[in-house]
Amino acid sequence: MTTMTDWLLDDSPTSRVQASLGRGYRMIRLLMRNPLAVIGAVILLTLIFAAVFAPWIAPHSPLGQNLSQRLLPPSSTHWMGTDELGRDIFSRVIYGARITLMIVALVAVIAAPLGLLIGAVSGYFGGWTDKVLMGVTDVFLSMPKLILALAFVAALGPGIENAIIAIAITSWPAYARIARAETLTFRNAEFISAMRLLGASHARIITGHVLPLCTSSMIVRVTLDMAGIILTAAGLGFLGLGAQPPLPEWGAMISRGRAFILDQWWVATMPGFAIIVVSLGFCFLGDGLRDVLDPKQGGKS
Amino acid sequence: MTAISLKNLDISYGPTKVVEAASFDVAEGESFALVGESGSGKSTILKAIAGLAPDWTGEITVLGQPRGHSVDHGFASRCQMVFQDPYGSLHPRKSVDRVLSEPLKIHGISNRDARVEDMLAAVGLDRRFRFRYPHQLSGGQRQRVAIARALMLEPKVMLLDEPTSALDVSVQAEILNLLKKLRREQGLTYLMVTHNLPVVSFMCDRMAVMHKGRIVEIAPASALHDGRFQDPYTQSLYAASGGNPDRKD
């Protein structure tokens, strides 16, 4: 084990693989020193675990109805109670992790690269390119996220895929702004000029040299935004514009539970609790990642 | 053959003219210095030759080929530049290996591993530095990497923008010796910007003195020993720097 650590932390790595593994190991070690980040990581790992192994973890079917057992309080057979159709809420929350994870992952996969690319191109070229791209960005930024998402879902029709597209469309402008600001700080740096002099094309410089410097702040921002994305998705679900019944989406579950919130509090509370825990997990992890990946500290670590 | 030839070069940044009517020739294999105080336009001339200051009129010829106004692919393998600040000229997230392989990748040159190793040896960096990141290197080591990157494409002309002014004195000497050795071994032509007259007498054959965007005098570096300068500004610069740089007192 010590030889492994020594190999990873070697000051003079002998191969590309060792150098990048060593970098990764140092980052993980830094991250592990932050207790909140560890809590966040544990929450997210639990979420991923629950999503992947949902059929084995969930004691009941998330969709199977049993009208003789409707609205039962939490007990040893139904850990989180049952809802108005007699479905086990714990199983639904576990299966809901899949939907939440899918929404979060797809939004991140669509919005982050789009924002990153637009921001980097805009900041790198400046001038008219910048004005046009940032104008478009401003138009999207000027509208409240949930309202814009609502408008898109209303136009595209309700459903989980359309909710994902709508959320992605509303979240890229913030990333474009960050990437642009980040790019502006080093667009005139000598290491960029040196690359130009070596004959590198603009596309090569943007993808190979500008984007890698933007990604760390982007990862932090995306992680922190995940909480907001989950809430927006839940909000759309609550309004009936996201996941459609009988999908066990957490926001939709709260919406159904609202009718019984005074007498059968667990129907709305349990999925709400799940949303809060997962959002907090993303926030904690994002904070921890910021401390590790912040470009201003990258040189010193 | 002349390596670099400037004729009537005017360079401006927006409405301000930074360099006016600059003309000089640098012979192949020569080491030529541009000297002057801060803001006299010496770095700007280098940038114009490199293509980083595109707003110029006049004529720039490098190794017999007229220079366009922007950076171009073919020019890269003939002429390269070393920047002043070794802390700003290396990508903070790329290892030495990546920095040195990049020019080879851009130009599709094969056998990259061996070339990188050879170049590290040529600039006096041990093999164990190869996979380090810039923040794991000292200033002098970074500047060696920057010099190595410039030499990767085997250019014949090197533009040096105060290559040692950001380093401390003992490291300066190492880098200057390295540059001298590389010039001898590879038959390079240097065009060097500096405000340090001892560096000129150590490194260069001739010098052009710049003042307020104009070249006021072109003199052999030997003039630094006997103080034979024509122009009053050059004489005052010479006097201000303490006269003969090699004199011990």
UniProtKB/TrEMBL annotation, chain A:
One of its GO terms (cellular component) is plasma membrane. Residues 97-286 form the ABC transmembrane type-1 domain. Keywords: Cell membrane, Membrane, Peptide transport, Protein transport, Transmembrane, Transmembrane helix, Transport. The keyword Cell membrane applies. One of its GO terms (biological process) is transmembrane transport. It is found in: Cell membrane. InterPro entries: BP-dependent_transpt_permease (IPR050366), MetI-like (IPR000515), MetI-like_sf (IPR035906), OppC_N (IPR025966). The keyword Lipid metabolism does not apply. It is a multi-pass membrane protein. The chain crosses the membrane at residues 36-58, 99-126, 146-170, 226-245, 265-286. Belongs to the binding-protein-dependent transport system permease family. This is Putative D,D-dipeptide transport system permease protein DdpC. It comes from Phaeobacter italicus.
